[in-house]
Amino acid sequence: MRLYSLLRPLLFTLDAEHAHGLAIAALKALPPRGVARLGPLAIRVAGIDFPGPIGLAAGFDKDGEVADALLGLGFDFVEIGTVTPLPQPGNPRPRLFRLAEDRAVINRMGFNSKGHAAAHARLAARHTRPGIVGVNIGANKDSADRIADYVAGVRAMRDVADYLTINISSPNTPGLRALQDAGALDELLARIAEERGGEGPPVFLKVAPDLNTNEIDGIVRAALDHGLDALIVANTTLSRPPLRSAHAREAGGLSGAPLRELALEKLRAFRSASGGALPLVAAGGIASAEDAYARVRAGASLIQLYSALVYEGPDLARRIGAGLAALMKRDGFRTLQEAVGSEPRS
Questions:
Q1: Is 342 assigned a catalytic role?
Q2: C-alpha to C-alpha distances, 294 to 136, 230, 258, 274, 300, nearest whole angstrom
Q3: N or C: which end of the chain has fewer CB within 10 A?
Q4: CB atoms < 10 A from the CB of 105, how many?
Q5: What is each CA distance from 172 to 68, 139, 208, in whole angstroms?
Q6: Which domains does the chain show, CATH number per domain?
Q7: Please, what is the angle between helix 146-157 and helix 182-196, to 10°?
Q8: What is the pLDDT of residues 147-175, one digit of tens each?
Q9: In this predicted model, what pLDDT tens digit does every residue of 223-272 receive, in sequence order?
Q10: Of 35, 113, 116, nearest to 68 (Cα)?
Q11: What is the DSSP-derived secondary structure letter of residue 30?
Q12: Catalytic residue chosen out of the listed positions 113, 170, 301, 307
């Protein structure tokens, strides 16, 4: 953390996307390191034995270039993507903005992706290595049949992914969030279930934080009806709480500290709507062990980070893991599963 605190002012003089590219290049240069072993934070979710709950959210390693290096930083699992069937450049630059005063990020990347074939080749080359790697799949912007794109993603990536995430909640592909509507979601999940045929890796669904109670209830019903394995709550938000940064009015999805309370609120809502019948993965505004513990106690079996790395540095996963274990011990929880959903119901 000390080294990163010294480097951060220099990195922040660079365009955010350029700095991200340098981070990917640096990770490629790292020697192989061991991955996390099973310990007191281990938990079984969707049939997978996770060594701990701390994952890297999709968006950092879009094309599966540095998954093993990221696991070596202390993440218990890594989610690559979003990967689209065909390569596409995404939205015009600039499209990634640091809101340093708010410890936040706004992005309108638009699913920039090198496509299924490139990601599959990389993951196939590392598939026998240890470590849990999920694949987040999306649709091409100009696709005539976006549901078919998701089905293609399941078909293409199922043999190299430990789990698959259906991302229908990015705000940066026009019309994509309409797939969260009841009729469209039912058709999407039915076609994915047909493609799976009861086989292959678990399938998670990533949802937006900008949902009302009726929409949450509908998503939970559809997820249960079609045998989804978990929900990720939540993606970036289109809402704009009070922000201080000059970039506050940039279009795109907001992530980081300002999303913390909204994401926690929606996690609780999904927990209530599902009655604990669906495993939940928490994302959005998690930057400390205390943040992670609050999500676990609110019902999350796993948590995901991304934007906080910009401000806290690459050792954040290890620090959160150590802090989370200490908080659980303080409160008398012997296992992570005991802590999941343990907060008092209001």
A1: no
A2: 25, 19, 16, 19, 9
A3: C
A4: 27
A5: 28, 12, 12
A6: 2-339 (3.20.20.70)
A7: 30
A8: 999 999 999 999 999 999 999 999 999 99
A9: 999 999 999 999 999 999 999 999 999 999 999 999 999 999 999 999 99
A10: 35
A11: S
A12: 170
